[in-house]
Design brief:
This protein is α+β, with helices and mostly antiparallel strands. The chain contains 21 helices and 44 strands.
Amino acid sequence: MKISLNWLNKYLSQEVDRYQLEKDYNLKSQEVSGLYPLVEASNLVIGYVKSCVQHENADKLKVCQVDVGDEVLQIICGAPNVDQGQKVIVACPGAVLPGNFKIKKAKIRGVVSNGMICSLAELGVQDFDKNELGIYVLKDDAPIGQDPLKFMGLDDWILDLDLTANRPDLLSMRGIAYDVKAMMDVDIEFTKPLVNRSKSKQTLNISTQTDDAPVYYGQIINNIQVKDSPYWLKSRLLSSGIRPINNVVDITNYVMLEYGQPLHAFDYNKFDSDQIIVRKAYDNETIVTLDDIERKLQTSDIVITDGQKPIALAGVMGGNDTEVDATTQTILLESAVFDPVSVRKTSRRLALKSESSSRFEKGINHTLTKEAMDRACELFVQLADGVVEGQASGYHHIDTQEQHISLSIKQLNRVTGHTFDVDTIKDLLRRLDYHYQVKDQVFDIEIPPRCIHFESYQDVIEEIVRIYGYDRIGTTLPTTPTEGKLSPDQAFKRQLRQYFTSIGFFETNTYSLTNQQQARQYDASPYSLVEIMNPINKERAFLRHSTIPALTDVMAYNVARKLEDIFIFEIGKRYTKESETELLSGLMHGTYQYSHWQKKTMQVDFYLLKGIIESFMTSMHIDHVEFKRAQVERPHIHPGISADIFINKVRAGWLGKLHPEEEKRLDVQDVYVFEMDLPILLKAAREINRQYQPMSKYPSVSRDIALVVDEDIEASILIETVKAISSQFLKSASIFDVYQGEHLEEGKKSIAMALVFENKEKTLETDEVDQMVQDIIKALEKEHQAQLRQ
């Protein structure tokens, strides 16, 4: 929002210092992106061209004698429109124009020139008058010898604010004035518009068929003379960043800037009826807008119609059929309030962003809608010779009940951590122009309609504190102890990343949106599917259940570019309608380790991946980890080369090889993946009870046994049995070999087990160890019909 300080000072009881205003805005309201003069030029004067003759040595130059009040200057000018009898803008010797262009006395083709006759472009305000053809010719009433910038209203300073979305009140000069009143404690005054209305026989019927246009007024104005706007109006528009067009357009823009209420003028003689109906557009209905483009409408768009066809897109742009032009004599002036969401959707879809639409999107103060129209009518009478026909037609369907918010001193002091007293709050509310009642240190505050987005006492506190000054609120330490460190979950994830990257994995971060097929590609359970209401495209219409499809896509992309060894992991999410679950997933493909010197390689297989997961669990101190044959076949995973992962008897995830058909589709071989629920890992890590265990002074004793069992008996069951019946001296039991084939009965297999015994108080005797081994063999024979292999 660009603020004209000349315009702002018209509302204030005293002129404010611009540099103090800039400081106050930065400290108490909105960030200032710039403070600068509208025209950066000096030593300018209004001159009168007394004579203009051809330069004796140049066909395109003229020698002018220009009266600048106290002297007559000879100036050489090359503009095609310079002529005798004109009032012009003169830059005298010593003047500095925009771009640090300095004017000096000079000789041009042998003739002395004492200055320069300026165009608006040379002053940096070429948008001030669209009819300029060369030098700018002032009106006849321009006073010779005076400052042309002051005469034209261009002696202005601009305060450029970067507004936040929660301050739509600052999108108007009146709202800015209220803000300056509060910050700088100055009085402000607004005058009510006075409109002379004629008796009218013209009828105008206005109605609505939608709740998205709760306020709409229309006013017929006759005898309109479309012409150039006066200097003061042009300069104020230019200061606000809006290019002047003609008096009709300029008046509507001026009132929008003054009140924050967008207006629109229709050529009423181009209407096919005497009625206005506001409604939602019909599906595939069309309108040609002011930019001569035919727009296809949707049922979410609000349109203004003449009873039959659309003549404007509400809050966005008018229609070409009712555009005001140079021949317009009667206008219908519109002032309305439209639903912000509907205007935003229409504006964004059609890429029609404007000053009006941005104000409708942020919210309009509906209590000023009628007054803004009256102000425009007043200006149309003054500047366009208009005749206002009777009273405005329309409706107002918004409840005008006052909004009240209660705030106690105790509440304010508790939230801010500062001690306010009643008198201080009264003074701040006076400056904010809030009406209130106070009883027992509780303020009942009437919220002004300009504060559109106020909902609770926190909004009032924010206003009080910013006007009081954030710099005056003391600093305090938090009442609760805080430490600058990672949470346990954050620390676990950091350790997780460090582990996998340390063993050669790369972390990925893939897209959560996918198609329906990939979302369910590896589901072993019927998870609910989350569909996006407005997807980017059909391939990104659902939220995923697994990150594995994305990892396989990453692998395929790299393999296609001759990168064969892929080791990647990701911390992603599974999305269902009921919850979001974080997952740890990974993929391995290719050669994991190799040595050119030793000519040794390690190809990725199931047991390598299983070992990496076991090592990961060990590094995280997670105990009671088991790998069991998958009980349910998982889609696209090899049914014979997969397993489920359990922690403390709770299923935590799975690992396995991609199904041959899936590998064929991806054009790869031997791809191994895993996926684990991160919350289960985090819970297991949090439940670790770490205790110091001293190293034994005495040696451990190892025994290896080979057992023949039925081929359907799992090795993990044998380990469980051994641990269940063994004494406290059994330190570990592990499988180191499985054999099936020659010298074994059909349906049998041999499992070799390594047993380690240790007594921390003495050296174990051979007889003791032998007895413990015999007990284990007997238990295995009894429970699983295992026989010691001979």
